[in-house]
Each structure stands twice: as structure tokens, then as C-alpha cells.
């Protein structure tokens, strides 16, 4: 480990990363640059400035990355219909490569030789931050305090604060949730506490972004989402920027009890963990995107996307956003989305979202051929005989030679 | 086309297949054997006997195949978590190979040289019936009246009945639904009518198996499903046969507004079509099966299953149940299910189903390692550094040699 | 079938397609436009003009498509390392989409309403021609004489010529090979004759493009192929056009006995068939392309290409070049090839080709890290422990809970 | 790291592992159990006994594992046609899981709490040994001296021997090859030395198992291999045990210059490395296995195998033989091999191996249908029209709605 002069820290302003600032200064004798981003976590980022200043930080970066986040990370991922392990919409995973990128940009600007973050040594986030950092700046050093220090409990952290006179806002930290939470414009996640028993149901008051289906309105809400090249661009005819659109979908979904998920997932580092997620807008968007694809995508393109999707989701989950293989898959996916234009009408009601209508100038739905009524010769039913006969040929030959299938 | 002496017809007892009986007798001068199966479509099958007799049929087969259907077709498919095009639970597709198998068995028993069915020349069902038949008895002949005759409207069929004095129960047929429907123990489907416009919302009174989420009870229903080797075996501790279990899930799901689906899908014969489906029990089962897998399956096994699934679903959808490639995939899937044992607790409420608990003696969830609390050394956080460093090595080398990812 | 006014025929000038000209004129009462292409089959195309004129054809197209063929079809396919069923380099398959495209262009130019070809009803080529034609011009009609007429033997064809006074060069046709052959710049194929017995060895005098390994020079030949963006651009430093380069590789390979293949393959129409192929230049090119990729491609990109390859090869073999799914795959493949630049040195000797050297400014081979000697700290061996430990974690947990692997 | 009492070492009897014995005794103060296996590396294993005894080892295991190796590892892998990165037949990779299994068995028998091996911290073998060990005995400890000590050169090792009076046979070690080599019944590998420059051609005298193609006989050798359920069982009609059969193929291949390979491959630990391999018997076997599959496997089964193969090869290469996902794939592969019976005739000549004949009672090759001659109605060419029309339907609809493919 070579000497470190300056480190850029992903800084939230909370207890943990405030301790990290001081610990880095003390342990490495280095200068700390803080970086705080608004990616829609729902907390003010500006207060982080005063806290960093109080810790003696001289270079303080506070960025509003919401539009970039949704436009360049969330939307490209939704083009792939990415779902991890059949259920998880990757709300935490997709925010990390943006943080990694910004950390490296700031390292380049400030001449820092290391980055640091507050992710633990058991989780996926350390992997996502660090793979991204190494991929973008191979010589960078990484300091992961949770893997190094022995401050492995809240009590020890508080003690450290007192010893080192770190000005933490104890009032806010006292009423701490029993869950470990993380939020950004795409979702909020909960882990730990009673969730560590996979048989225990999450308590109703854990959920923060959505009302319970029981508490949602008795009347359904209908909305129409417009798509261009696979990305949503409008709600009910109103054109919205990426972040604004997702924010609005979050409100609509949350109000209708949509997007809660309770799963046990497999982490990249090798263990299973229980997680609960609220992804109101993302859940609506996934349904809508599949619906607009259903009338605009060729069948084989759609199936190929489905067969590539699990791999794409693994890449995002495991932290390989900044990799040539993700770019390669993205090239194929983006190629398919040129024609994914049109509108989807959705019904939101007490926890569920249904596509009830879809239309597009690029629709491949052919009423003349699909009809149960007389199609005036658009489709020749006799073609089906040859189609079936030749598709069956290999099976007929095999059966004729005695192969058994039962 | 060689001379046909005897044909086995998949006979529902309804208008269409009654016309087919007579049309086969007249057109081919052959004997007709009828086969009527109870696969849970919810209509009496016994009345088909008198109707067939009235048409002069001498060999009449009426079978209750519900248990075989669920045990040997539905459950093996659910082991694969099969979903077609991201949404469709394959409720129609999976019933066809059983019918095909039984048609061939009866052809063997009765010495028939052909089979016949009432599926149209535009749909998937003709393919599924015929591929199955050819795969199981390569020399069989297939007569698909809808591809041959010109009785291509309800009016012409009725006229044919009158001309040929076919005793149809007109009272029942008059109040005919505007939709083309098909049902079995796994689902009921709707096509045609206003659904041919993919922008038009299905009318509430179309749905038959489920109440609307709006009309579902205000209180959630909780159930626990027990699994053995990947198959459900009990509900709330009560052991049930496959068909009985699925029937009960259908009632529970239907009462809670669960399992409605409205999609545009791609048919194997090349066109897009709009379909609405109610799969109440299947929707619950899919959620439960994924949940029990989430704690019992190894990560890589689960991911491999996910990557194979789209291919498996295509095979079922396209009619290749009776094929060596489906058997090959099934061998891999079944190998994975030995350990899929345990219980899943589910919450059913107004259209949505959530897994809220899962437990198993075969659980791989390790509380000691997964915990956010002190794990007493079960997991060495320092291992993560080497893990990340070597996973990043190829990316670091590439970046060091000037490769750009942005 | 609507009335046909004018048809564009893929015309070789040989017996079969000469009969087709007259048969089309007689059977459909339509005008015939002939199209003859030089795609490197090694026969003069100009003589086709006089033959067509003698048959009363007024619009005659004769094109040299060699450069387009190699540049836009062969090379893009080699970027994918496409091999069908583990062995076949797709030499026939890849020529068909170019012919289909040109037939449709000529149909558009001449106002023809149909195309026609001389491929049989049992083979893959009919599928490839017609899928391409339909995909590029959906209203086009297709006449496939071999599926319609009863001239199903050479004798009947000759008789037809005499009856209709078709001026065939009988001298050339008498010494006909017992094999059905097809050639283009990528390969020559042999089917039929004694090859219909898969146990029978092909006779030495069947092979036309290569000497036997036994007859090849006793001294190896060394060559160096230069690549840019995945395509070969030079041999031994001499820049060559695509067709010229492939032609030269064919000569080099043929002289060294390289590129013979004898296989049983699965046709898209459902049967197995025996084929022998000579692909001298393609065999060298495949080896060289893999070798240049081996030092320039990222590992995961290379593996992703390998996992996509079988699907890509199926698409080409089955005739789906002109499809959105092939374009989608191509987008991913082409994305990967930007960095595939450099040189490969090859040894050609008596039937085998080996890569013996590869170098590139885009090489990812890192001598410092790969070395068995002291690497001066470029790689930290201790990282491997954490890498292995965490990769093993899921296996250790499973074993700890009693899972057995033996 | 807890206290280690006894360690089982994979012991070759050579310099490196002899040093490791003493180093383990000194560093860990533990008892060392040695395990030496004959897996066909071509060196006597019995001399290891005296060397181990001289080092004070009390529990010495020397096993002949050749039959087990070929029967339970090599052959199952060849059923999958496994090739890594398009070229490498996995000769080193497949031997490791057997060693790992035996190390653990011996640890169980002797009550050892650790295993150790002589693989370096840069290579794949450490991963393969250790993943296998952890998967089979999760509590086992692993000592990898090359990752711990500083004896990182041949000189330091020799010095250590002298200091510790380790009786090494210096005469044999003096004429050491410049290459790092590894051999077993499937192959011999070469790394290091001038091979570290990927542009440098391997010297002729490096190769040990095969004559150069130039030096091979002028006359081809023909052999016939018999297969049962996907495994080779005989050569030229003579039934042979697995190891004996592979040994004989090695001799035949080596004498004909077959099976040399020179590649740059991607290691699991993240770097590229140059390797040369001789796999004479394996190269013949791969060709033969594909040939017998070509007439006995269904098309879709064969294609599914091809699409799964790269993943299977990755698993073997990366060291996941002992994993549930490899077993899952193996279940699918083995299911396909029931019908892979019959004979393949091969021509071996100066470096190349060709299949020239294949026959089987389970052949799906149907001469009646495949023939270019009159097939007496076995195949109806008119079926092809419907087959093509419906396969083209989605493309025709898309083109009709204005989609462009060019």
C-alpha cells in the first residue's frame, strides 16, 4: 500500500461517513474530499456542506445527479427489462455505477490518489463501487473502512464521535430505524432487523414510500405513458424530463400501494440475504415498457431480449455496469429499441398495475390477420399444414425409428 | 392422402366439434371415435356421451384427466418457473400435450388411422396437437377441418347443423359470449371481440374466474403452501392431491381478484394476438415456488434456471412438450428441485399476492453470515478485497492499456 | 395465386435454370428476367447472356458481386466466429441473402411481381431465398419450380429441353459429376451420390479446391494476416480488397490441403444430410480471427460472443440473415470488434493451420502480470485467497448445511 | 487462522513440493500427509514414497487414479463437447477436481484439518483445488505456500533445500525445461519461457507427446471408434477400458502429429496467458464424438448442447466441477447421450483428423428422405411452401408496415 495523499469519499453527511472522514484523516494522514450527490434519496444534500466543513474538509462536492441518473442509468436498464432473480428491479445496484463514475471524475479533478466509501465488507455495494472505480481509473487506490477498522457497531461509532469530537446530530440519529435503508429515485430498500428471519413478515410501518394496498384509494387510477425509442417521455400527454417523470410515477405508484417486494436474494459475495423494496414508479414502468414492446417488437427480437436479460441483470447486480460486456449487450438492446414508440394505458389499483391498452404508429399488430372474423384472404390457413409437417419432420423420423418420448 | 377408415376426434360436445363429427363422417366416409376429457374446464363432460351417440358415434371415450394434468404437466412446468414473453403462464399451451397423448393412445386402442381436432388454422393449438401427435405416432394422419372446409362463420355452422339434422342445443348456444374462450384447471382465456383492438380495455363482465380487485374482500387472506421436491403438496398444513390443490388455489386467488392478465403475445404461426387470461391459482403458485426456491436453491443453479427458462417456455408455447429437447431441459430442472422443500407464507389481497415468509429444513439462508450484527467471525470481510481486486483485474489491465468505457 | 406478369429468375445458365426459363414462360405466360451473379463460383458468368437471349429473355442482369459478397456478408459473419453444429463454416448459407437481396432489387427495378429460383423443395436454399425475399418485399410472389413440376430427374429435364428446343450445351453436361455441387468465394460443397451413405468415405477425386494433405508441399507455408476492426485487411503486409484477400487465402489453403470437411448436418426443413465442403480460405480466416481476438478481446466479451455464436450460426444457416434478430446480434458483435486490430502469424502445413504468433497495439496481454518470473509487484498473489474464499462461500455454506455433491 | 495439526499435501516428489513438506512442518509445526497420484502424467509415482519418508512423512498415499480419472471426469466432459474459448480441450482443468476430491477423502481418513498444494497464486489451479476442497469439506483449511512464502524463484528453493538438508535429486532437476509443464492422461501443457511473448513461435523441441506433422508417416492411419451412451468403448473393434483407450488414442494421435495447440487464453484470475498444449487422444475423441452425435442426436438437442457448452466449459475451466450447477448441466447432457451409440471411422494424417464414416443402429439419418433421387413420396416438397410462408409471416407483416432491414 503506497502512501495516500488525498482521498475522495462518498459522503452522505450521516453518522457513518462522518466518522469515516475523521478516521481517514487520522489513519492515513491524508486530505479528504467529500462528494455528496442528490440521486433522489429524498434527503437534503446541502446540509452535508456544513458538516464536511466542520470536519475540516476543504474540497466539497455537492451535485444534483437526478436527471443524469435516470436518463443514463435507469432508462437504459429498463430498455432491457432487467429483473434480478425473477423479482428484483435492481434499484440499489443501478445507482452505484454513477457514484463510482463521479468519484473518479472528482479524483481526476482534485488529483486524489484514492477513493473511499461507507459500504460494508459483506454487501454488494463495495463491489459495485470498487469495480467501477478500477474500471475507470486502474491505478486508483480504494479505502473501505468497514473492511479495515474495528468500529463494527453503532455504539463504537458513537464512542468514536465523542472521542474525536465529531459533531453528529444525535437527536436525528436517536430515533433510528431498526432497518438498514437505502434510497434513490428508483427505490428504497430495507434490510436487517427482524427481516433477518426470512419467515418473519415485514411490519407495516417499515414501508415508507407507498401506502398499503389496503389504504389505497377505492377507485382505480388510469394513466397513459408515452414512449420514444424505448424510453418513457410523457404521462397523460405531458412531456416530462426523465427524473421528473420517474418522480411522478413514484407518487402515482406509492399512492396506489404499488411496488412493494419482499424477497431473499443471492449476493455476489456468496450469501443469501433478505431484502424488502419499494419501487413504485419502476414497477409501473416495467409493466408499461413490456406492453409497448409487445406491439412494436418483432417476436424473435423480443425472445432474444428475454434470453439475454438474466445475464444483463447479473451484470448490473454484480457491479459490472462499467464493463465492455455490459456495453456489448447494451448495443444489442438499444438496436432493438428504435421502434419502441407509442402509448400504453395502465390501470393502477390497490397494489397492482395492469396494462389495459397499447397503441403505436410502429405497431406490428395486424388486425386483418389476427382477427377471428373473415380476414379476406390475408392469411392462408393451408400454409399451417406444411409449417407443422416440416417442424414435425425430425420428430416423425425419430419416432419412426423407435425413439420413445414417454 | 391415403384412405381414412377411423378417426379419433377431440370432442367437446359443443357446436363446432358436433359439426365436425358429421363433416368427418360425410367427407371421409370414416368412422368417428370421440374423446372428451375433463381437464378442469368447469363444464360437465358426461353430456357429451348422449350427443355423440345421437351423431351415431359408437366408440366414445370420456376421461377425467384432472389429476394427471396437474401432476404430470402443470407441476413439471412450474418447476421451471416458465413464463412466456415475460407475462403469460402458459395456461392453454400446457393442456394440449395431454390431449395429444390421449388422442394417440385412443387411436392405438381403437385402431384408428387419423386424429382430428377443432382448432383453427391461425392459432397455436393446431400446432400443439399435431406436433404432439406426430411425435408420438409418426404415421398418424391429421384432419384439421378448419383448415379444409368453408364453414368459416357461426352462421354457416348453424346452417350445416340444420341441413344435416345435427341436434345442437341452440338455447345454450344463443347467449354466446362475444369472446373465444378456453378453460382448464390452470386458467381461462379470452380472445376476439373487442379485444382485437389492443387499445380497448377488456370489459369487467368478461372475466369469469375472479372477482375484480375492487370487489375483493377488504381483509387480506394469508395462506401457507408446503412444497416437496419443487411441487406444492399442502395448503395450510392440509395435504392435497395435485388437482385438488390447484382447484383450491384457484378459489382463493379468484376470491381475492388475483391472476388477471391482459397482453399482446406472439403466436408461433407468426402473428401477434391479444389475449386476456385468468390464472388465479397459477399466479399464487408461481410466487410461492420462486419464494421457496429463493432459500433452497444455490445461486448459480437459480441463475442457470433463469437463463434456460425462456427457451423452456418457448418449447411449451410452441407445442414441443413431446420432444427430446424439452425432456433434456426437464432433466436439468428436475435435478435442481430435489432440495426445493419447505413452506411459503403468502398474503393475498385485492389482486396482488406477496410472499411474506419462507422456511425450510433445506434452507441455505445463513443467519450468522447474513446478519448486520456481529457475526462472530463467520465471514471474513477482508476476503472481499481480494475478491474485488481479481474480479477487477481484467478491467484494470484494459483501462491501463487505454481502453475507454465512457 | 394472382396472375404473374414478370418474374426475376436466379439464372446460372446451366441445364436446370434454362429449363426453368422456358417452363416459367409456358406455365405462367409471364416475362422472365434473368439474373446471373459472379460470387466467385469459378465459372464465367458472361456466357449466360447469350443463353438467356436464346431463350427469348429481354431483361438480362449479370453482376460481379464478389466484393460486396465478401465485404458485407462473409466478413460480418466471421466477426461472429460463426460455426454451425460445431463444424460447418456456412459457406452456402451466407451467399443466399445476397442473391435474395439482388433478386428483389431487380424486381423493383423491372417492376416484376415474382421471383423464382432453382432450389429443390428438400433443401435449405429455398428457405434462405424466400425468407430473404419476403422480408425485403412482403408482397412479392415466389415460384419454386422444383416444388411444382414433375421434372424430378435429369432425364425428364433433358427430354423437356429437346421437346422445347432449349439450346443446352450437352457436351458439358454429359460428363456430369455424380455429386450435387455449389460454389462461391467462401467454399464449394458436395452432396448426393455415394455421400448419401454416411459410412462411405468420399472419393479423393471429388475434392476440387484443395490438394489432399498427402499431396501438399513438404515444407510449411507461413503467412501473416493483418486485421482492422475484426476484418482481415492484408496478407504479409500487402493490403488487399475483401474478395482479393479471400481468393488469395483460398489459393494458399488449397495448396496446403486445408479446409476439407465431411459431416452429417441437420437441415432446417427437418432431415439430416451428408455434406462435404472445402473452405480453404475460411478455415484459415477462422483460426486467424480467433487468434487476434485472443489478445485483444476482454474475457467476458469473448465468452459472451461464444455463447451467442450458436444462435447467430442458426440464423445464418436457417436463412434469417434479413431479420431484425440477426441485426440485433450483429450490433453486439460489431460493438466488440472495434479493438480487434493487429496481426496473426500462421503456419499452413498438410491440412492443418496453426496460429503461431499474434500481436497488436490493442493487446490486453500483459507480460508483467502473466510472467512466471518475478513481476515486481504487478500482481498481488494474496488477492487470490479472498477471491477463492468468496467464490467458494455459497458452496461452503451449502456443504455446511449437509448438501452432497458426490 | 486456527492452529493446524495435520495437513494433506498434493505431493509430486519434485523439488517444489518437497520444499513445501519441510516448509509446512517448520512453519505450521504440523504433521504432513503426502498424496501422490498417477493420473497418467507419464512419471513413476512410487519413487515419491522414499522421498516422503526421507522428509519424515509418516502417512503416505500413492494411488493409481487413471481409470477413475478418465471414466468419471474426462468422459463426462467429452459428452458435453466442452471446449474453452473455442480451442482449449481443458486438459489441465479436468484433472484438478479429482485431486481435490482425493485430498479431502484422505483428510477425512487421516483426521487432517488442512490441505495444501503447490500451485501458484497467479494461476487457475489454486482456484480449482481450493473450490473443490471447500465444496466437499467446508471447514477444511487451505495452505497455499506460493501465496505465503517468499521463495519465489528456483534459486531460493534450492537454497532452502540446502539449508534444510532436503534430499533433492539435483541431477534430474538441473536439465530443467525452460517451460512450466503439466501432464496427465488427457494432455501435456507448456507455459512460460519464450511463450511469454505471444508473437514468438514455440520451438519444435518443446513438444513432447507428438511428432511434428512434418515427421509423421506419409500414409494415413484409419481407425474406428465404438461408442456407447456417448462414451468411447472400443478401437477397431477391441473393447478397452477408459484409461487404456485414451492411452491408445494418445499414441495414435501423437504418432500422426495430431493435437498440438498454441493459444492465448483468459485465466479465471483475470489475466491473459499463453499456453501450448498437446492433446492427441482428446483431439481425436472430440472429432469422433461429434461425428457419432451427428447421426444419433436430434437437431434441437444438438443445438441445445451447443448453446450450453460454453457455460459448461467455463465451469470446468474455472474450477466448479464440484458444484450443483455443473451437476445440473451434466444431468441434461447425460440425458441426451442414451442414444449416442455406434461407430465412427477416422482418418489420421499429418496433424489432422477427419471423420470419414459414421454408422449406428440409433441413426436418425434417413436415406429415403435425404436422397436427391426420387424418394417415393417419403417427403412432400409442397409442405415447404407453408413452412416458409409462416416462418416468414412476422417478417412480411413487419415489412408491410414499413420496417427496413437494409
Explain what this protein looks like in three dimensions:
The structure is a homotetramer of 406-residue chains. By secondary structure, chain A is of the alpha/beta class. In chain A, 42% of the residues lie in helices and 20% in strands. Chain A contains 14 helices and 14 strands. The first copy, chain A, has helices at residues 15-28, 47-54, 66-79, 96-110, 125-136, 145-148, 154-164, 170-174, 242-255, 280-296, 299-318, 324-337, 367-370, 383-400, and strands spanning 6-10, 31-38, 59-64, 114-116, 141-143, 180-184, 187-191, 221-228, 231-235, 238-239, 260-266, 272-278, 342-349, 352-359. In chain A, the strands form 3 sheets. Chain A has a 5-stranded parallel beta sheet with strand order 3-2-1-4-5, sandwiched between helices. A 5-stranded antiparallel beta sheet of chain A has the order 10-9-8-13-14. Chain A starts with 5 loop residues before the first strand and ends in a 6-residue tail after the last helix. The model of chain A has no long low-confidence stretch (mean pLDDT 95). Chains A and B meet through helix 5, strand 11, strand 12, helix 10 and helix 11 of A and helix 5, strand 11, strand 12, helix 10 and helix 11 of B. Chains A, B, C, D: It catalyses: L-citrulline + L-aspartate + ATP = 2-(N(omega)-L-arginino)succinate + AMP + diphosphate + H(+). Chains A, B, C, D: InterPro entries: Arginosuc_syn_C, Arginosuc_syn_N, Arginosuc_synth, Arginosuc_synth_CS, Arginosuc_synth_type_1_subfam, AS_cat/multimer_dom_body, Rossmann-like_a/b/a_fold. Chains A, B, C, D: It comes from Microbulbifer variabilis.
Amino acid at each position: 500500500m503506497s502512501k495516500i495523499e488525498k482521498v475522495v469519499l462518498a459522503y452522505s453527511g450521516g453518522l457513518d461517513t462522518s466518522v469515516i472522514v475523521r478516521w481517514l484523516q487520522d489513519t492515513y494522514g491524508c486530505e479528504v474530499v467529500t462528494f455528496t450527490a442528490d440521486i433522489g434519496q429524498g434527503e437534503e444534500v446541502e446540509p452535508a456542506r456544513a458538516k464536511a466543513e466542520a470536519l475540516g474538509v476543504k474540497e466539497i462536492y455537492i451535485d444534483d445527479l437526478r436527471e443524469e441518473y435516470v436518463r443514463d442509468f435507469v432508462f437504459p436498464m429498463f430498455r432491457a427489462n432487467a429483473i434480478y432473480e425473477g423479482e428484483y428491479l435492481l434499484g440499489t445496484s443501478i445507482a452505484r455505477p454513477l457514484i463510482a463514475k463521479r468519484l473518479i471524475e472528482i479524483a481526476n479533478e482534485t488529483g486524489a490518489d484514492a477513493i473511499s466509501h461507507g459500504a460494508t465488507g459483506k454487501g454488494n455495494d463495495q463491489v459495485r463501487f470498487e469495480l467501477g472505480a478500477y474500471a475507470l481509473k486502474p491505478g486508483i487506490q480504494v479505502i473501505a473502512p468497514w473492511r479495515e477498522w474495528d468500529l463494527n457497531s453503532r455504539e463504537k461509532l458513537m464512542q468514536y464521535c465523542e472521542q474525536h469530537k465529531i459533531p453528529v446530530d444525535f437527536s436525528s440519529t436517536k430515533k433510528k430505524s431498526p432497518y438498514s435503508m437505502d434510497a434513490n429515485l428508483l427505490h428504497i430498500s430495507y434490510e436487517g432487523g427482524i427481516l433477518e428471519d426470512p419467515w418473519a413478515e415485514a411490519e407495516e410501518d417499515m414501508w415508507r414510500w407507498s401506502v398499503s394496498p389496503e389504504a389505497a384509494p377505492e377507485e382505480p387510477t388510469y394513466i397513459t405513458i408515452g414512449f420514444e425509442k424505448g424510453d418513457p417521455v410523457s404521462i397523460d400527454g405531458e412531456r416530462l424530463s426523465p427524473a421528473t417523470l420517474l418522480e411522478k410515477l413514484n407518487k402515482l405508484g406509492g399512492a396506489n400501494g404499488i411496488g412493494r417486494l419482499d424477497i431473499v436474494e443471492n449476493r455476489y459475495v456468496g450469501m443469501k440475504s433478505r431484502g424488502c423494496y419499494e419501487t413504485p414508479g419502476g414497477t409501473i414502468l416495467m409493466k408499461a415498457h413490456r406492453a409497448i414492446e409487445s406491439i412494436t417488437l418483432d417476436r424473435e427480437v423480443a425472445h432474444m431480449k428475454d434470453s439475454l436479460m438474466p445475464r444483463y441483470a447479473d451484470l448490473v447486480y454484480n457491479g459490472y455496469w462499467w464493463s465492455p460486456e455490459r456495453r456489448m449487450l447494451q448495443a444489442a438492446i438499444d438496436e432493438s429499441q428504435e421502434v419502441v414508440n407509442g402509448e400504453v394505458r395502465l390501470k393502477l389499483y390497490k397494489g397492482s398495475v395492469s396494462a389495459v391498452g397499447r397503441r403505436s404508429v410502429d405497431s406490428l399488430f395486424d388486425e386483418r390477420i389476427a382477427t377471428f372474423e373473415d380476414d379476406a384472404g390475408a392469411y392462408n390457413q393451408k400454409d399451417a399444414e406444411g409449417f407443422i409437417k416440416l417442424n414435425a419432420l425430425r420428430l416423425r423420423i425419430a419416432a419412426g425409428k423407435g425413439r420413445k418420448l414417454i
